[in-house]
Amino acid sequence: MSQEPEPISAAERRALERDRDALRAARSADAPAPQDSDQAGDRGDAADQSERVDEATHVGVRLAEITLRLHEGERAGVPPVDAVGVGSTVTVRFPDGDRATLHLARLASDRDPTLVTADSPLGHALLGHEAGDRVEYATPDGRETVHLLSVGEPGPENGR
Fold first, then answer.
1. Which end of the chain is more exposed for a tag (fewer CB within 10 A), N or C?
2. Nearest to 79 by CA among 150, 148, 21, 18
């Protein structure tokens, strides 16, 4: 991973902002209610409290990661359009003819299925390539090749 901040695509930004907002809402909903310190609790209460603390820690760490990524993306400027880099939007055609517009991101998001991480086999293989290139990458079923139709805006319907 480089020391320079990496650009962030509009799609990645939206997905991270949705994740951030969902985590903030979950954190607010899970905030512990004030308890009377004179009440005696049992081990179940202690276990429940420990679980809430663990979840709050996880949420806090993920919020910090998202906030940092959004800040870095803002500092880095616009994603590259001449060659594929982190933050790029690309359109590819698979061997079966299917096309997909994907967004290369550093962090995965379960809220945006079009995000491909730069360290995934496809994402890593695409890095540095230009529109028109054929890119080979490893899959669990063997090697695959995609045709990189465009870098930047989604490619034409009838690409190369």
1. N
2. 150
Q: For residues 58 and 69, what is the distance between their CA atoms, to the nearest angstrom? A: 17
Parse the chain into domains and list their residue ranges.
10-76, 89-151
pTM over 0.85: no
The per-residue pLDDT for range 97-130, each reduced to its tens digit, is: 999 999 888 777 666 777 888 889 999 999 999 9
Whether the Cβ atoms of residue 12 and residue 87 lie closer than 8 Å to each other = yes
**What are φ and ψ of residue 147, in 5° steps?**
-100, 120
Class of 89-151 in CATH: alpha beta
**Would you say 134 and 149 are in contact if contact means Cβ atoms under 8 Å apart?**
no
Strands 99-105 vs 89-93: parallel, antiparallel or unpaired: antiparallel
